[in-house]
C-alpha cells in the first residue's frame, strides 16, 4: 500500500512538472488538433491504497471542473457520428469512459454522472461479469483482502439504461499481443456476439485490454475492424484530432489529480507523457513497477 501511494505521488509530480513546463512555453497542441478528449477511469471509491482508483470526492470535483473549464461531455453516438459520418463535434468535446466493469461505477460514479447530466461508456471484459474471481491485475490485492467486485448482467443492463453505455473489452482481460491470433480473434469477435445477445443491441466499440502500443498491433486493429466494430479505444495518452484513426483512439488515464493537474491534462500540456505508452515506455514502466513492488498481471 505504501509503495502504491509513493508511485501515485511520483506520477502526480511528473505530470504537474511536465504540464507546467509545456504550458509556460506555450507548446500545447492547438484546439484544431484536439477534436476529442477521452477520459479513462477504472474504479471510483474511497478504499485507501486501492490501485487505479479515483476517490468519490475527487471524481465529483473533476466532473464539475469539466463544466467550469468549458468542456462539453458527449456520448458515444456523437463520437460515432464524427468519425464514421463526418459530423462535427462541439468545441471541447470530451468522452468519459470506464474500463473493467467494477461495481463501484454503478454505486459511486453513476450518481455523480447523473447529477451533472453526463453520459459515459463502460468497457467490460465478459469473462468477469458476475464472477467473484478478481481480474488478473487484482489477484495480488484480493489475496490481501482488497476485493473489487465486478458487475453482474442485471447491473450492466441497469447502467446501460441509465446513460452509461456498455461496450466491449474482450473476454479475459489479457493483452491481445500475448495471444495467438485465433485466441485474439475469439477475444474480439466472440465477445461482441455474446455482449450483443445479452444487451439486445449492436455493440460498436472495443477497448484494447491494457492498451499501450506494446499490447496490440496492426493485426488486432484489423481484427477489430473485421468483427464489425466501428471504433477502437487504446490506453495511449493523448487527445484525438478530426482525422485520427478511429480504431486507435487515444485516452487519458485519469488519476486522483489536483484541479490544476487535471486542467493541464485536459489542455494537452501533459501529452508528452504519452511516451510511457510506446513499446520502450511500456517496458520502462514494467521495470519501475518491479522496483517499487507494484507489478500486476
**Elements, N to C (H/E):** HEEEHEHEHEHHEHEHEEHH
Radius of gyration: 18 Å
Based on Cα principal axes, name the global outline: globular
Low-confidence stretches: none
Helix content: 40-55%
Distance between the termini: 17 Å
Q: How would a crystallographer describe the biggest sheet?
A: 6 strands, parallel
Q: How many extended strands?
A: 10
Pairing-aware structural class of the strands and helices? alpha/beta
Q: Oligomer, anyone?
A: single chain
Average of pLDDT: 89
Number of helices: 10
Strand content: 5-15%
Topology:
Elements: H1 2-25, E1 37-41, E2 43-44, E3 53-54, H2 56-68, E4 72-73, H3 76-85, E5 93-99, H4 104-116, E6 120-124, H5 139-143, H6 153-161, E7 164-168, H7 181-199, E8 205-207, H8 218-226, E9 231-233, E10 252-253, H9 259-267, H10 279-292
Parallel strand pairs: 1-5, 1-10, 2-3, 4-5, 5-6, 6-7, 8-9
Helix pairs in contact: 1-9, 2-4, 7-8
Amino acid at each position: 500500500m505504501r509503495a502504491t501511494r509513493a508511485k501515485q505521488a511520483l506520477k502526480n509530480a511528473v505530470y504537474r512538472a511536465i504540464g507546467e513546463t509545456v504550458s509556460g512555453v506555450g507548446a500545447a497542441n492547438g484546439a484544431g488538433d484536439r477534436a476529442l478528449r477521452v477520459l479513462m477511469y477504472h474504479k471510483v471509491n474511497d478504499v485507501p491504497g486501492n490501485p487505479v482508483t479515483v476517490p468519490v470526492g475527487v471524481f465529483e470535483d473533476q466532473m464539475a471542473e469539466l463544466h467550469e473549464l468549458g468542456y462539453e461531455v458527449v456520448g458515444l453516438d456523437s463520437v460515432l457520428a464524427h468519425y464514421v459520418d463526418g459530423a462535427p463535434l462541439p468545441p471541447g468535446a470530451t468522452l468519459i469512459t470506464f474500463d473493467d466493469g467494477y461495481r463501484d461505477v454503478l454505486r459511486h460514479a453513476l450518481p455523480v454522472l447523473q447529477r451533472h447530466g453526463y453520459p459515459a461508456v463502460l468497457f467490460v471484459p465478459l469473462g468477469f461479469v458476475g464472477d467473484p474471481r478478481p481480474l488478473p491485475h487484482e489477484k495480488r490485492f484480493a489475496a490481501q483482502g482488497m476485493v473489487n467486485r465486478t458487475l453482474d448482467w442485471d447491473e450492466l443492463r441497469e447502467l446501460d439504461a441509465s446513460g452509461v453505455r456498455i461496450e466491449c473489452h474482450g473476454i479475459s482481460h489479457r493483452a491481445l499481443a500475448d495471444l495467438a491470433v485465433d485466441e485474439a480473434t475469439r477475444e474480439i469477435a466472440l465477445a461482441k456476439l455474446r455482449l450483443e445477445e445479452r444487451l439486445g443491441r449492436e455493440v460498436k466499440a472495443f477497448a484494447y485490454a491494457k492498451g499501450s502500443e506494446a499490447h496490440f498491433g496492426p493485426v488486432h486493429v484489423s481484427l477489430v475492424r473485421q468483427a464489425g466494430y466501428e471504433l477502437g479505444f487504446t490506453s495511449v495518452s493523448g487527445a484525438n484530432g478530426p482525422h485520427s484513426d478511429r480504431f486507435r483512439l487515444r485516452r487519458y488515464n485519469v488519476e486522483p489529480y489536483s484541479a490544476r493537474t487535471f486542467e493541464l491534462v485536459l489542455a494537452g500540456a501533459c501529452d508528452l507523457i504519452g511516451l510511457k505508452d510506446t513499446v520502450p515506455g511500456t517496458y520502462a514502466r514494467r521495470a519501475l513497477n518491479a522496483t517499487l513492488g507494484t507489478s500486476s498481471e
